[in-house]
Amino acid sequence: MVGMLRVAWILLFFGGSAMVSCGATFEQLRDRAALDLDCPAAAIRARAVDNRTELVSGCGRQAIYVTSCGTDGTNCTWLLNSPIKPAVVQQSTPSAATPAVR
Questions:
Q1: Could you tell me the residue range of the domain that residue 61 belongs to?
Q2: Are 57 and 82 in contact (CB under 8 A)?
Q3: How far is it, in rounded angstroms, from Cα 14 to Cα 1?
Q4: What stretches of the chain show up as alpha helix (H) in DSSP?
Q5: 42 domain-assigned
């Protein structure tokens, strides 16, 4: 019984700490893109491309970022994954299928 409780505490501790520390945040993305795009953080906007990729724009420029995590799934951050280009201005109105911009 004591052995089972010890295993449960170990799983709870390590499982819980992994859940807290995994995943790159929007704040990390915004701060990194602000430096790369030479743009104030408040002007940075991002749109999901897939579950690991964001298209980021601000101050007339855009770039693509991907999440990168350690081998254990923690210590995640965003990495620039494209050249920095002039932002593309969309002329059409957004549709229901258009992903939300943060």
A1: 23-86
A2: no
A3: 20
A4: 2-21, 26-36
A5: yes
Residue 64 contacts residue 54 (beta carbons within 8 Å): yes
- Work out how many domains the chain is built from and give that number: 1
Q: Are 62 and 36 in contact, with CB atoms under 8 Å apart?
A: no
Query: What is the amino acid identity at position 47?
Result: R
The first and second tokens of residue 84, run together, are 């920095």
Is 14 a domain residue? Answer: no
Q: Is residue 52 part of a domain?
A: yes
The token pair at 59 is 């101050």
Helices (H) and strands (E) in the chain, counts: 2, 5
Q: How confident is the model over 50-97, as pLDDT tens digits?
A: 999 999 999 999 999 999 999 998 999 999 999 999 998 766 555 555
Residue 11 lies in a domain: no
